[in-house]
Amino acid sequence: MSVEISVFTATYNRADTLHRVWNSLRQQTVKNFEWVIIDDGSSDNTREVVEQFAQNSDFDVRYYWQTNRGKHTAYNAFAGLARGDLYCSIDSDDEVLPQCLERMLFHFNDILAGERTEYAGIMCLAQDQHGELIGDEFWPDDFRDDVVGVLLRHRKLGDKGGLNRLDVLREFPFPEDVERVYVPESYHIHGYTTKYKTKFVNEILIQPWTDRREDHLSNRLGEVKNYAGTAYGLLAWPKYSMRHFWRNPKLFVAVTSAYIAVALASGKSLRRQYHEVESLAGRTLWLPLIPLGLIRYYTMRRR
Fold first, then answer.
1. How does DSSP assign 153-184, residue by residue?
2. pTM above 0.90, yes or no
3. Is 219 a residue whose pLDDT tops 60?
């Protein structure tokens, strides 16, 4: 069966919240989609819960279990399994509005046919479970920029949703040399913005829950045990986004020196970092910041 959209949910011990995603998908105004759940090693009753969903759904529900390796590896697994040309990612404790997939598809198809290959996809607004807008709306200048540029322009962009091309996810996969850590989605976003545009839409279509659990992945970025994943989130700036350097030099200095420190703390030598940064502009920034990075590294060790 062909589908237009593959909905992706990575989950880990969230049997108690997956019903939010399922209920919101049951209410969608279009049905030509599949829901692909990548279970990243859950030890609760997630499998049984999803089996019940599948028996009572009028869309395909596909469940895959893998040993616990991290959400970033679940993204890569999904990219190899999904059947749609476009995908929408929904976290295992969130919801989308009933018209979400229909409107996302409308906005993507509204891009001129001859220009669609220039776009990674569309990005829309989000509201919390109380109906309050999360973060900023997109501003007029945003519509002429890429995702990283928009992020730099806003002090509080907040959660956003999107519909993206699956082939772009395959073209810019997540790293798999680290496991059981949280690698931010921003690593993938920085990568694809080097080549693709995004269409920004001031329409609320997703509904993340803001009463975040203590085990929410974003809480792990500052943890010592997550340094290997955090380093990739920091690396994305000098590796992919130096074209934006002059828009906020202080940020690039802070992030790149933090990358040096966190990467060292996770066992990556300076030689390894040099190869990871890749871009000439990024290396030009990284090299003189080694002393500052070392200072930050030794400060971290003394904590």
1. H-S-----EEEEEHHHHHHSPPP-SS-SS---
2. yes
3. no
